[in-house]
Amino acid sequence: MTEFFIFPFSFSEIREQSSDSRYTVVGGNFVKGQEEKQIKRTLNELDRAIYEDIHIINESDRFDYLYWIITMMEESKEKMNVEILVKVGDIIHTHFQRIIKMLDDVDGEDQINQHRISFKMLAFLAFYYLNASCVKKPKKALISNEIRGKKEVSNEYIEKIAEKQAILLRLFEESLLINFKTLWQRRDIDSQFFKYYYETSLKMLESKQLLKQQNIKETIFNILKKVIFINSDSLSTIQFKLINLIYEEENIVEYICDFLLSTQNQNSNNASQDEFLILLNISEDQRDNGEKNYFQLCTDTLIRLVNYANQTNVNTESQAVKNVKEFLLKMSEKIPKIFYNNLSCFVQLLDNEAYHLRNAVVEIMGNIIKNVLSTRQNLPQDEQSLQEEESENHEKAKEKILDALIQRIYDKHAFSRSHVLQVFIDLCSQNLIPQNYLFPLLGCACDRIKDTSANVRKKAIILLLKIMEFYFIIFAASQNRVKFHTLEELEREQSFNETEKSELISEQKQIEEKLQDRENVEQFHEFQHDLNQVKRKIELCMKLKHNLDEYTKMINQIELIMPNLLQLLGSKNNSDATETIKLMIYLYQTNIQCANQGIRKMLVLIWSREKLVKEELIKAYWILYLDEKAFKPEGVAKNLVYLFKKANLTDLTSLEELLIAIQKWNQTIEEKEREKKQDMFYISNKTFDKIWDIFTTSVIQNDANSKYSMRAALTILRISSQNNKTIFSQNRMISLIEVLKKFLRLNQPDWIVVKEIGILLENKEDSNYLNSFIKLMIFILIKFQGTVDNEWYCACEQILNTIFSIEQNPESLIKYLILRCTKTLLEGQDTSNEINKNIEIPQTPPRSVAEGVSPLKVTPFQSPKQTFETEENEESKQLLFERRLGHLLFLVGHSALKLLIHIDNIENELKKLKIEGEKKQEEQQHKEGAEAAELDKIYGGLEAEYEKRLEYLHKIAEENIINGDNLIAQYKPWVDKIVKDIIENQEGASYRNVDLDRVAVLTLCKFMCVSKVYCEQNLPVLFKLLESSFSDHLLKINIIVSIGDLLHKFPNLVEPYNSKIFTKLHDPDVQVRKTTMMVLTHLILNDMMKIRGEICEVALLLEDEEPKIQNIVKLFLHELHKKDQKIIYNLLPEAIGRMSRQDKTELGAPIHEKTFENFAKNIMQYLEKDKYSETLVEKLCVRFQNSQNQREWRNCSFCLSQLSYNEKGLRKLIEFYENYREKLNDPEIMENFQNILIKLKRLPKQEMKPLIEEFEAKIQAYKVESFEIVKKKETALTAKAKRVADKKKKDESNKENQQNQLNTRTRSKKQIKKNQEESDEDEFEGEDKNEDFEEEEEEIEEKPQANKKFQRKEQPKKRVLRKVNQNKKRSMVEEDEDDEQMDSEGDYDEDDEDYN
Known about the structure:
Number of strands: 0
Largest sheet: none
């Protein structure tokens, strides 16, 4: 029997031998070696034995056996039999419950000792069982190490063990009601005894399966609570344990919060508190001390947690920091008053590096304002003074907190900035911001709209909207107004208020004078009353002045930030655009006038590829203009007409797309949402009827005011008719015919209406009145040829397009129209009477009565007098002739272009027919067999016929449109003559007819598009006009656009002139630069033109004074990068070189340092991939060594400062350090490298820290040469001296060889002469011998060794001669190699001189 048992420090410590004779378990190997059957049998025997005598647990073998079974369970839960584990739990909880009940009836010291040891040993086993059986979800980071490859714990194990755990926990709670002093008698309670209670209880909070059982969480909390009351020394340990759990465990924060909150709730319930304390066997002092400790547990834990967080350096993104944030936020929501009372402690976290903790403090401050400082309690009247004093203190505290929060808006981390803004959004939504803080907060929100973080910008826009809603309540809703005042109204209000204030001040002075007059003593009280009223009115005036000043500042602030808001509408981030649209809607509805710019600017978002942005734009215009429930059909019709009247060409295009998108809305939504959204965006036929009424009314009025309404209404109806065929019924088409007839009778038609009718007819395929419309429009063109109104050209172009679109054979109509206009021009007659009398105007078709729509009624007009009599009286015939000529040339030029397009359409139809024919032919050949297929191939088949017809069409296009004897070719000399006159008389351009010149050049360009030969002949003329300084801007614009078409049609002809196109990027006129950039963007992005060094010319436009041109350039770079990410990377080095070598580009545009910096900042953002940045670092560093241009060094260093660096990029920068080390003496270059260092230090990657420190050390010590550099220089100098000595030695050897060769040559000549005299051979052989010996002599001069070899060995004559020739060839090759070596050595010496 064990007579001495002390709770060990840990469960494993009991296995180790101790010096103080503590209990130690043995026999672990024996238990682990048993089989399951044997274990079950032993456990059953042990259970019976303990049941018979509970003190048998004190025997070491019984206790040790249970201990080792639990140890096996702890080590391998997944391997053990569940029945064994359940049996162990049954044994422990059954007998632990028995010993607790037995302690109530214990008598005698011996019995108490025996019971105490049994209780302690069973409690120890119960604690161990709970800890060993606890199953918790492993941390995500450890899953791969702990779980992978192992079996997971079964659900059966979890469910059955959880039941045992719950029973044991309830027994532990019951055991704490024991009188421990009686049980331990005069002995001290084990120091570790209560530790097992709270540590085990806290660990059980990690088991989710256990916490699913009813009231188990309250059981754990009660255990902790009782331990605190019984043993006050455990309080600090529990606090630290709670803090450690918050830092280490992921899913336990919620339960710790519940426990700490229970300390506050329990304290508020005095009845349950007293009942609880009565059950505990503790003294009154212990109760008082326990109550104090228990109540302070929550506050002390919070403070200790904050201090611990400030003192520890934990990774800012770690789970521990996130747990602390979650814990603080949950506690602050429930008990904000404790946080308010200890706010000075929590404010310290605002300086913490972990942004999660800073965010937590910011939200805590928000909770304090919402739940503490903005709530009032209803106190009795005798305590009202205390309440007023408390409210004053709360206001002061709120102001301090708001000041601190405003400072946090400029936090260094974007998440923190957005979090602060969200807190202010919540406060504004609940109207908790004082009025005096609104304007400073408005300024902060406007500042954050310029933030680099998209999330911060989003929150700033939302906050700005909330502030404006707050201001609306103060300034507008309080005065029963539905809109803000305008600035003009505010100025009137201020002047009126100042006048009233001055009058009241003068009245106050008068009353004060009367009060000082002693004669008016009887009226003293009356004067005093009047004086008080005047003072109150003056105070009201002062207050009103303050409000009006703030009102004005608010509107001015919105006007200042408006350009940034307009910029955000074009942002690539969806939230920027959508939130700005919502803000614009509110500002527009509340009469902030600058919002009109935003409403108009955001219209282009209808072309956005982002579905969310596009839907938000449609919703915005629906709310503002098109909601029939809000405006009724009449209002929607007026709104639409108003929008189209005020729109420019860009807005008209966007509005057209908007209308089409709204009409297609019901076709695109999903079937599930059709019932909800089918009426969301829908324009009814009633609205279109009202728009038609506006059109008919405007036609009848026919004045200047109604002209634009008529145009807008017809445009709206024409656009809407594309998806709603019922808009233009038969009666309305007849009414349009009546309108054209009316125009034919008037002095001046509305050409835009004529144009819209032409577009309508182009889309109206099933109309029965096309011929009538075409004839009427042709008659209108002929009649008004020579009109002053330049809108004639728009109508003419559309009429020609309609003719070619509708008519199958448009040539006859075009011929008639050209001949009639030519006749009018040459004869100089007025055609109005002829049109009215001789031409048969089409009859009006019968009206449809069944449709129920009344057609337009136009009163008949008498034929007016000659249209141009007044013009001929006022203007000269020459001007009329030039206008008619201009109209005729435009007609001819556009007809030629449409004929070319007509031929292209025929070619496309031929291709379709060919494809269909080939399919039919394949089917037929499949039926007939292979012989028919072979025969068809021999004759060429469809392909040959297609090629023949295609060739014929090309011949027509090239030779029969503007060449030959056809009609249009007759006008070509006219165009050439006018263009020639423009070039020859450029100095007198101010006296020329500008419109005629423009039309002539435009016609020339259209002719060039038709014929390749004509294009080649006139390209020099065209570019001469483009380069001329006397050409007006519209002429240049027409030429530039035409060049784009010519480059597409004839690329090989126009390509040599590409550089001249880029010169127009620097034209003095803004429109010319803009058009050139747009044309180049189209050509380059569609692969019709290649860009290389010309990127410099484009880059210079980033400094253009026109913002639209800057935006086009940025869009071009963005699209170029999107097309191919390598393009900008490949162009950048050449661009740096070109922009660094000179002050002007090749085309003469000036280059400044700021120009290059702006270019680099815009271009570097497209080098997103790390591999591009790495290789670019290497290329830029090499340029430091290869270039001698200081400006290029600076530009390269600036580009390096704009790059983003990873580890490889930084290593490259360090590797090429010697290339730029000496250049760091330049202050600008040094500043750029310092910026690189600053950027590197901001990187969060810790593995790059050694590299950054190495780079920093090199930058700081750039003036000190390293040992390797000095060694390299010494090696270079030694090598140079050695080369010089070798060269000198070689020269001496060469001189000696030359002298030997000269002596040898002399001896050889003497020997040859002697041999010639003695020889008996013929003359031919003698000559051969002399030649061979001469070759031998030359060889001897160059190669003495060959000469010696030749002398040393005597051979027959032929063999000797062949050998000499071979040696000669070899020596010539070696001589060339020596020369090359000498040349290279000479170059090396020159390099050495440069080095010195």
